[in-house]
């Protein structure tokens, strides 16, 4: 039985692995524009506790979708996740401190 989340996506799917396995290349970043750039940092809700936040770095952009990696994961892409900027909550770095919100790293 395949593992999927409620929205039908496979939680173990890794875009880079898919490209390598299918001998494919992704569309160039210039084909899509959201204003976000690779390396930018955001504060996003912690998946275990939405009242807590943790910084994440933009790894890849694709229109309204970003691939994010929580800070502290280095080059480990195993916990990278897709993030829709139109439906997800995100804030600039420093927002939590300014709004007295707590930062907690994801487990």
UniProtKB/TrEMBL annotation:
Keywords: Repeat. One of its GO terms (molecular function) is chromatin binding. It holds the Pfam family MBT. This is Scm-like with four MBT domains protein 2. GO terms for biological process: negative regulation of DNA-templated transcription. GO terms for cellular component: nucleus. It comes from Caerostris extrusa. MBT repeats lie at residues 13-106. The keyword Repeat applies. InterPro entries: Mbt, PcG_chromatin_remod_factors. The keyword Oxidoreductase does not apply. Signal peptide: none annotated.
């Amino acid at each position: 039985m395949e593992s999927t989340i409620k929205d039908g996506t496979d939680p173990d799917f890794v875009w880079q692995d898919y490209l390598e396995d299918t001998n494919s290349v992704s569309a160039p970043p210039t084909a899509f524009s959201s204003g976000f750039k690779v390396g930018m940092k955001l504060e996003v809700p912690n998946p275990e506790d939405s009242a807590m936040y943790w910084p994440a770095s933009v790894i890849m952009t694709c229109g309204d979708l970003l691939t994010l990696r929580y800070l502290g994961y280095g080059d480990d892409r195993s916990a990278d996740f897709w993030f829709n900027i139109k439906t997800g909550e995100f804030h600039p770095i420093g927002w939590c401190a300014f709004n007295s919100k707590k930062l907690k790293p994801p487990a």
